[in-house]
Amino acid sequence: MAVLAATAGGALSGPAAAEGETPPGQVDFPSHCLPPQEAGLPPADGPTTARITVDNPAPRVGDTVTVTYQVLRTPAVAPLDPDGAGGELPADTLTPTGRILLAGAQSGEVTVVGVKRNDPVPAGEPLPAVTMTGTFTVTAPGETTLAPGSYTLHTSHPLELDTTCTADTASPVSARLTATALPTANLRSVFLGAAHGGPGARVKVTAAGFPPGTAVTVAGRAGAAETADRVRATADALGTALVELPVTDRATTGVVAYEGAAWSAGKGSGPAAYTVIAVTPPPSVTPPPPSGTQKVTATVEPGALGLIQTGEDITLGAVPYGAGGAAPGRIGTVTVTDARGGPAGWSLIGKVTDFTGPGGIRIPGASLSWTPRCVAAEGSRSACTAGSAGVVGPDGALLASTPDAPLVGGTFTIDATVTLQVPPYTPPGAYTAVLTLTLS
Prior knowledge:
Layout: E1 4-7, E2 26-34, E3 44-54, E4 64-73, E5 88-89, E6 94-104, E7 108-113, E8 121-122, E9 130-137, E10 142-155, E11 161-167, E12 175-179, E13 189-192, E14 196-197, E15 201-208, E16 215-222, E17 225-234, E18 241-247, E19 254-259, E20 272-273, E21 275-276, E22 305-309, E23 325-330, E24 334-338, E25 346-352, E26 355-356, E27 362-363, E28 368-376, E29 385-386, E30 390-391, E31 397-402, E32 410-422, E33 435-439
Parallel strand pairs: 14-21
Antiparallel strand pairs: 1-9, 2-3, 2-11, 3-4, 4-9, 5-8, 6-7, 6-10, 10-11, 10-12, 13-15, 15-18, 16-17, 16-19, 19-20, 22-24, 23-32, 24-32, 25-31, 25-33, 26-27, 28-30, 28-32, 29-31
C-alpha cells in the first residue's frame, strides 16, 4: 500500500509541447460533478481535462516521489448566492483536493491537495483550473501507472460547499514511472565450531543466510582454490545448514559455503579461517639432541573473530510534523577483534527492519542510510575498508571489511552516522526499528 502524504505547492513543469500539440500526460475523461444541495445547482456532466506529472520517473525502491495533479478543465461551476441570484465567487476562496490512482507494480491511492488560490468567477460559470500535489513512497520495482481519480472543489463563499467530481469510466493513464530495486547484499556466511585441529578432525560448520531449501556445499579452501574436503546439505526453513566437515587435506586454510556448482561472490560465503595442526611425530622418530643442548618449542594458537558494540539503542534526531526531512544519528561504536591468524578476511553486514510507529504506521527500512567509518588499531596486519555510503534497508549493506591476505588480524574500530528520511506529514510519534549487524 502506498504511503500517503499531502503537500501544498504549484505545478511541476514537464516537457514542453509544441504549439497546437497536447502536452505529455494530458488526458480527457467523462466526469460527473455533484454539487451540494445548498449550492442551488443541478449535477454537471462533461469532460474533465487533467494532467499528472512526477518529479522522478525513474526512482529506486524506498524513494519518495512528488506527484502533481492538474485539473485544466472541469464541468463544475461556481455556486449561486443562497437566494438563487447571480454574483461571483471571490478570489482565493477555492481549495482543491483529489486522488491519484496507482496500478501496476504498485497499487493504491495518493492524496493530493492544492492551495486556496483563484481569480474571481461569476456564479454559474465553470470553475478555474487547479493544481494539487502530494507524495508517496515507492515500495515495489517495475512500472507503476498513475491515473487521475476523483477530485473535490471546496468553495468558502457564500457557504462552505464541496463539489465532488468522479470519472464516469475508468480513468486513462496520465503518467508512468519505472522503479528499480535496491541493490541486495550477499549475507551468506559460515561459522566454525573450532578454528584449528589435527588432520581428519571433524569440524562443526554453520552455513547461514541461504535461501530456504537450497542445496549448500561446504568445502575446504587453500587461498582461492578448493581442497578435497567437501560435504553437502540442504538449508532449512531459516536458510541455515548444519554439517560436520572432515578436514583431511593438510592444505586447507579456510572453509567456505556456497550454492550452485561452484563458489561465486554472489552466492557464496567468505572463508572462515581454519588451521590444520600437524601431529607431533613419535619420540622414536626424532633423533636425540646433541649432548648439552635442548630443543625449545613455542606454539602460537589461533584465536577467534568477534565483535563488541557499545550501547544498545540508537536515538535519532526529531523531525517536525508536516515538512518531514532527515532524522540524524550515529550507531554505537563497534570493535572487531580478529585473532584467528590464517588468510581469511572478514565482512560486517548491517540490515534494518521497517520503522513502526503509532497505529502500525510504517516508514520503510530503505529510508535509512549510513556513512560508515573504520580505523585499524596500530600494529594490525589487515587494512580495514569502510562500506560505501548509502541505503541500509532490510536487504542489508556492508558496514566494513578486511581482505584476504597471507596473514591477517588486528583490532578495528567501526562506526557510522545514520540518517532516516521521514516522509512529509508522517503522523507524530516514536518510530522504532531493529538494526542487526552480522560478522563473518
